[in-house]
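Repro:
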Amino acid sequence: MNDDLRERALGAYLGFAVGDALGATVEFMTPREIKADHGVHRHIIGGGWLRLKAGEVTDDTQMCLVLGESILAHGTWSLTQFAEGMGAWLKSSPVDVGNTCRRGIRRYLVDRSVIGEPSEWDAGNGACIRNLPAILSTLHDGDLFREITLDQAHLTHHNQLSDEATLALGQMVRAVLHGGGMADIQRLALDLAARHREFRFEPYANRSSAYVADTLSTVFHYFFTTDNFKDCLIDVVNQGGDADSTGALAGMLAGSLYGVSAIPQEWMSRLNPAIVKVIHQQVDGLLNWGQGR
């Protein structure tokens, strides 16, 4: 396995988890509230409305881990296996579950349907948040990348904007892991915004909600206006709103671009060691899964 590829893949996954843990503290807060309580929020301290311990992650990272485990459980992709994993996760009483994700998982548990009906109400960010394992496992197979991405998305989010966002973010990470850089990510972001005005990020509208267009606009704005991992994450989570999700996705992009060594040791040392261990195992397994196809 290429060392640079592994460095960037680990950067993406660990960056995702770090961003999740950092942003969870200020989720649903406004920038003014964050400033009043924290000045500039820059440390992984837990707390927040979920009352997490320092270094714990939210449903964002947990869903990623479920998808990764589901992919690695078989030599071939099985949407039913993923749906079963999500059902077991929901039954485990996770710390938080988004309403659209909960509704889709419950539908599967009731009628075993793995694809929900298309809905204008499914334009949340849940599907694009959990897609990183699909990206890592299909680096050498663009058709399979699209298949797994849309399959896992439609279990809970069957919506064009959700699909477009999830595919675009995946293409960005794929481009970087194949040797691309910031210019490639920006080109893909501008292309997405050109096709769907909802994803325009300049001028930035200062909306950081769980609506997928707000989420990506926030991530893109702060990713493209910084030049290092730390500043990118600090800036994005201090925007508040759905800060665990924007932090996670910004961490994924920045981690893939700058590499795992760019993640501040202060943050890495605070992340739950059990989560770090599983992420290392999944990165190696997912990269090998894809190469072995």
